[in-house]
Prior knowledge:
Order of helices and strands: EEHHHHEHEEHEHEEEHHEEHHHEEHHH
Number of helices: 15
Distance between the termini: 41 Å
Number of strands: 13
Radius of gyration: 28 Å
Strand content: 5-15%
Mean pLDDT: 78
Largest sheet: 5 strands, parallel
Helix content: 40-55%
Shape: globular
Number of domains: 3
Amino acid sequence: MPILSDGQRPEFDPELGVIVPPANGMPRSVFARSEAPRATWHRPYVAWLVLLDLLAALAAGSTAIGLFEKADAGFRDDPALGGQLSVFLLVANIGVPVGWVLLLWSCGAYRRRALGIGTEELTRVLRATLAMAATVSFLAFAFKKDLSRMTVVVVIIAMLVYTLLGRFVARLLLHRRRRSGKRASQRMLLVGTISDAMAVYSVATRNPAAGLRPVAIHLPAYPRADEKVEAPIPVYVGWELVPLVREIAADTIAVCGPASLESYELRKLAWQLEGTGLDLVVVPQVTDVTGPRIHVRPVEGLPLLNVEEPTISGLALLTKGLLDRTCALLGLLLMSPFLIAVAVAIRLTDGGPAIFRQTRIGYQGKAFRVWKFRTMYVDAEQRLEALREQNESDGLLFKIKDDPRITRIGRWLRARSVDELPQLVNVLMGQMSLVGPRPLPTEDDAYQGDVRRRLLVRPGITGLWQVSGRSDLSWEEAVRLDLYYVDNWSLAYDLGILWRTVSVVLASRGAY
C-alpha cells in the first residue's frame, strides 16, 4: 500500500474492496501542482534506434557505392569521375545519414507513442522516405545537379529496407523485454467504472508487447454499500488523480468510457497534467471506430465527432480482390513442392484423404466449400458428439486444447497454420480473401444480430482475430474484433494484419 508524502497511509475499506484517501484528504485545488514520474524507459531505446538508422543510411550509401564502382570500373583513372565519387562519398557518409535521422525525427518515428507498434513505425518511416525523395529532388533542382536517378533510387530503397530491418529487430527485443515484465511500458491508472476499466485492462494485458501496463483503477464514485469491488489490481476511490498517479508511480492516466469523468472534469484534468510529463488517454464513447471514418468538426468551440459509414466498395475493394488472386496464384506456384510434401505426409499417417472440405458461410451469406489440410482422423465427425461436453469455447466455436481427434502431424500443421494454406484455392476462386473474418462452420440461420455484419466482407485466411489471440479469445471478443475489421477496413490495414500474422504464426500463439 502506498505511503503519502506526509507519512500517512491511505485506508483500505474491506467491505467495499477499495483504497480511500486519509481523512484530511489530498489537495483538491486545480492549481495544486504535483510532481509526477516521467516515463524514461524509451530514451535508451530511442538512442539505439538513432544509431541503427544511421547505420542503415551508411549501409545504403555503401550499397550505392558498390553499384557505382561496378558501373564505372575505370573511374579511378579519370579525374572527373574520381572527383564525382569524392563528392558522392562525402554526401553518402555524412549528409544522407544526418538528413535521414532528421527526417525520421520530423515524421515522428522516434516518438514514444509510436515505439513498438509495427504499423505505426512503418507508416512514419514510409513518410520519411517520401520526404527524403522530395528533398533530394528539390536540392538537385535548386543547385542544378545532374544526379544519377538510378543511384538515388538505390540509396532510398536500400535505406528504407535497412531501416525497417533494423527496427524490426529492435522491436522484437523490445517486445521480449515487455513480456518479461521489465519496465519498458506505460504504467496506466485506469479511471472509470469497474466494468469499463476491466474491459480496457483485459485488452491491455492480453498483449503485453503493446506496452500498456495497468497498475491501478480509480472509480469516479463510491460503490454501493452492498457492492463488493474485486479486481486483479488495486482499486482507489475519492482521490485526486495527479497525486494518486505520483503515489503509485504511474505515467499515464486512461479515462475509460463516457461515464468516467464529466466534460469539465476531463478538461480540468488536462490542465493539471500540463508540465507533469504524464500522458492522458481517453477511450471514446464511439468504440471500435478509427481511421478515416472519424473527423473532428469544431463548431463555436464545441468539437463534434463525425463518424462516417464504412466503405466496403469502390476502387480499393477492386484492388484488394486483384491482389488477393495474384498473391494466391503466386503462393500456390511457389509453395507447390511443400504443399505436395505435406499432402503425402498426411496420406502416410492413416491412409485417409489429405484435403478436408467443409461447407461454410461466406460473403453475403453464400455457402461454399472451404479447403484445408486434414488434421483430424477420418472419423472425427462421428466422434464429435461424444466430446460436446468438453467444449472449452463458447458461441459458435468448438475448441478443445487437447482434442483426441487431432493426428500427430495435424498438431504440427495447426500450430504453424500450415493447414490453412490450401485455402489459397478458395482465394483464387474469389470465395475468400487473404485477410478477413474467418469462415465459420455453421448454417446461415445461426448468425443472429450483429454477427451477420461479418458477412459484408469475404472471409479470410487470416484476420484481426488471428493476430490478436486466435483460439485463446472468447467468442464475444472474436466477434468484436471481426466487426472492428469490417467497420474499419482498408488496404493499409490488411497489409498490417499480414505483417503481424508472420510473427504470430512463428510464435505459434493461440493455435490448437
